[in-house]
Amino acid sequence: MKRAGVGGGTGRLMENIVHFARVLRAAGRFPGAAPGRMVDAAAALRATGIGSREDFYWTLHALFVSDPAEREMFAQAFHVFWRNPRLLERLCGLLLPQVKTPPAGHRALPRRLSDALYPGARQNTAPDDAEAERETAAMAWSARERLAETDFAAMSAAEVEEARRALARMKLPLPARPSRRRRKSFGAMRRSTVDLRAALRLAVRHGGAPPHLPKKIPRPRPPAVVALCDISGSMQPYSRMLLHFLHALCARPQRRVHGFVFGTRLSNITRHLRRKDVDLAMARVAGAVRDFGGGTRIGDCVRAFNRDWSRRLPLHDALVLFISDGLDRADGEGVAFEMARLRRSCRRLVWLNPLLRYREFRPLAAGVRAILPEVHELRAVHNLNSVAALSEALTVNRR
Length: 399
What we know:
By secondary structure, the protein is an alpha/beta fold. The chain is built from 16 helices and nine strands. A six-stranded mixed sheet has the order 6-5-4-7-8-9. Helix 14 links the parallel strand 7 and strand 8. Helix 1 runs antiparallel to helix 6 and helix 2 packs antiparallel against helix 3. It is elongated and about 105 Å long.
């Protein structure tokens, strides 16, 4: 049989290909099935022709599938959409109809794919279809798991929005520590002392003989969190996402969170992060900071923090998050001295480095070698899973 070319009567075939691409986008991510790929599909079919079902399948597969995780979904959608057994003859005639009526076994398909292929068909299905619900739940879980493992720098615009919502829901329940302030104690507790003022007031009311001695104990309080975030060009995809995480921390009541960003200079963004509206907060940060995406002078910026802010903030009992890849424009000049000073000023210094996502990471840069000996802990921060792991690790009660 001759190879069937795709010639002048491509109207009906292209309509069905466009509809097939819409089905793929409705059933899953499929960024390769974007509208701009329709022209590429027409050119590819014109070049290869339609010699067999397999040729047609792999031509569309090469155009629409951009992720190995999409292969199974594409195969299911293809074999259902183009389900006629005499596909070659129908393609040659360019008379393929759009799929309107579901086949008998459409309920065995995943829910998202079934809804995309047969809109409205689930209204006639039994609501207690446990098999379909389990498959739908499995697919949803797979999508969330893949998003959690996706690097911030590799996320699409839709994934970035979803990741920002996930970051807003994350919590950092740091263990409370005793403070200098005290509160009433209504029983025999450790570290309790006599509340002299309350005892005198009680004695006056009872004629000089108080019935009991009121006690007080230290009031627990969560430690302060101070974040120093690198906003240089190499850190830009990660710093923007982590600023959303810091905004979520600032939104918690009674949370002492102080945010600083640095590139070639240090900027205090604490009051901007305390805005309730995250979009307004990020807009204020972008307007206040002028060195986004520029170079990095880690030594000068940490020196400015130690000089201007170390005594104005409660660093003695604070958790300091140093967010940077350690790549310094000044080749690590003064970094070791200033980081050692910062470490002595705070309770715990944690370095969050997105470069740790690489197994081959080695501390070769001068800035990395200068910072590494001066931190209490080094952790990766490049996706949602790493941020969640950070939250779990920091909630451990560190006495």
